[in-house]
Specification:
Elements: H1 6-9, H2 21-32, H3 34-49, H4 54-76, H5 85-93, H6 95-129, H7 137-152, H8 156-183, H9 203-215, H10 231-261, H11 266-272, H12 276-285, H13 287-321, H14 340-360, H15 364-397, H16 404-427, H17 429-433, H18 440-466, H19 468-472, H20 480-488
Helix pairs in contact: 2-8, 2-10, 2-13, 3-9, 3-10, 3-11, 3-13, 4-9, 4-10, 4-15, 4-16, 5-6, 5-15, 6-7, 6-13, 6-14, 6-15, 6-18, 7-13, 7-14, 8-10, 8-13, 9-15, 9-16, 12-13, 13-14, 15-16
């Protein structure tokens, strides 16, 4: 048999040893969009909750995600797969649950990435209208969509460098605004927001769901595990650091807004003005800083769209490489090793949604950014919970020299914590969406994800019957072809292990 050509040799291979800890941090932190979360999410949380306990909500979620990250990154030391949580579920709970998780994951990440174009178009439209350029939101969204699509096909380290610049400036401005809020305290610095009674009732579930969505992206270092240098260390460091950094930013920033507006006034101020953070900055620092903040909000959302675009593309690539879906999704660029086919597919999906929303005249903020974004959050919370269970089961079979804390205790605590968050998020989803209890939409979202999971499971069962070789390779990533070849040759596949 002749040797494979250079083109075929890299046709389904991602770049190796390209990303260090800082590069992984750039992807995960920009995906979380700190400025967008503070400027939009936190203010909305005050208005929705009608309480000041937003900082304590972030403390609870940060602790829960840290517990999850302990077992999650321990498992990542043994499994490197661009499909990340899909692969972890497949290797922990089995191939059928794995494909079910893959369908939920790909849909959730795709929806979350596309939802950002709605907010991006709205922010850009408002910003450019102030200088006399009055264009519809979708025109700005399409410009960003084209930019993200082009960068998504470039080498992964180029993407990391672009995100590094945007992230540094974004975080700096958030910290400047927060410091200004503390310096201009309305009634002195109060610690009332950290009282356990500051967050209660039905609103608690909505706040916790929004808080989790604000952290989404923290899990992405595992997606780049195949492209990371010294992945057994860098992935864990980047994941834990992301949660800690985001927790610090969110807790301090939300607390600073309370401090500037006053414990008794912040809810009313947030309800009356969803641009409260920028309004406070304008009053305290002047209109120039307010404008800078709004410009950086635009770059923040664009950076997040790029980061989630890369994450989604790698999930699609992982599924294509293992032939679970269209095999052409597993193709990479010969020159850059970027998952070009999957990236272009995600770009097409985003473009179709923007055009559809524009044609139907739907609201880009409410119907695209908020509804689609929060709905995807429910899917991702369920995915995190499922992955936590998979981690526990995986190490129950073999601890692989991991500590009792990483393989048993932390995963159990993470399951309890994330199970509680998912339960509260689902039963109080109507509060999160701002619709009446009993409305169709809050019921429809969990049903849609349940149907997706069911369809994924049925597809896996079909593969088991019709394509046993493909089924055998599910979750094995770059080693899937070896496992599949062994299955076709009826050779025991135990040797094609986890590492």
């Amino acid at each position: 048999m002749s040797a494979p050509s250079p083109a075929s040799a890299v046709q389904s291979a991602l770049a190796r040893d390209k990303l260090g800890t800082l590069s992984l941090l750039h992807f995960s932190l920009t995906a979380a969009t700190p400025l967008t979360v503070i400027a939009g999410g936190v203010v909305v949380m005050f208005a929705v909750a009608g309480q000041i306990g937003i900082p304590i909500g972030y403390v609870i979620i940060a602790a829960s995600l840290l517990l999850f990250s302990v077992g999650y990154t321990a498992m990542a030391r043994h499994i490197a797969n661009a499909g990340a949580m899909y692969a972890f579920v497949a290797r922990g709970l089995g191939r059928v649950p794995g494909v079910a998780a893959a369908w939920v994951a790909a849909t959730s990440y795709c929806a979350l990435q596309v939802s950002l174009y709605g907010y991006l178009g709205y922010v850009a439209q408002s910003l450019f209208a102030s200088i006399g350029l009055d264009l519809p939101w979708w025109a700005f969204a399409l410009v960003a969509w084209l930019l993200v699509g082009l960068l998504g096909t470039r080498a992964v380290d180029i993407n990391a460098k672009v995100l590094a610049v945007l992230l540094t400036v974004e975080v700096a401005v958030v910290l400047v605004f927060s410091a200004s809020n503390f310096a201009n305290a309305a009634d002195g610095v109060s610690f009332g927001a950290f009282s356990p009674t500051a967050l209660s009732g039905e609103a608690a579930g909505a706040v916790l769901a929004l808080a989790v969505i604000g952290f989404i992206g923290f899990e992405s270092p595992t997606v780049y595990g195949e492209e990371a240098r010294d992945r057994k260390r860098t992935v864990a460091r980047a994941t834990i650091a992301t949660v800690l950094i985001l927790a610090f930013i969110y807790i301090v920033s939300s607390w600073s807004i309370i401090t500037a507006a006053g414990d008794d006034n912040v809810v009313a101020a947030a309800t009356a003005d969803f641009d409260l953070m920028f309004s406070l900055a304008g009053d305290q620092l002047g209109s120039t800083w307010e404008t800078i903040g709004r410009i950086l909000l635009l770059t923040s959302v664009t950076a997040a769209a790029l980061s989630f675009h890369n994450t989604t593309a790698r999930y699609l690539f992982a599924l294509g490489r293992e032939q679970v879906v269209f095999s052409w999704l597993g193709r990479t660029s010969v020159r850059t090793c970027a998952p070009v086919a999957a990236s272009v597919t995600q770009t097409v999906a985003g473009g179709l949604v923007i055009v559809l929303w524009a044609v139907l005249g739907l609201d880009p903020v409410v119907h695209l950014f908020y509804y689609l974004g929060t709905a995807s959050g429910i899917g991702l919370i369920a995915l995190i919970l499922t992955c936590a269970i998979a981690v526990l089961v995986y190490f129950a079979r073999d601890r692989r020299e991991e500590s009792l804390w990483a393989s048993r205790i932390a995963p159990v605590l993470a399951i309890l914590a994330m199970g509680g968050v998912l339960y509260l998020s689902v039963i109080h989803f109507h509060t999160l969406l701002g619709v009446e209890k009993g409305s169709l939409l809050p019921k429809l979202v969990p049903i849609v994800f349940a149907v997706l999971a069911l369809l994924g499971a049925l597809w896996a069962l079909f593969l088991k019957r019709a394509r046993p070789d493909v089924y055998a390779g599910i979750g094995h990533g770059a080693k899937a072809p070896l496992v599949q070849a062994a299955e076709r040759a009826a050779v025991p596949v135990g040797a094609a292990g986890d590492r």
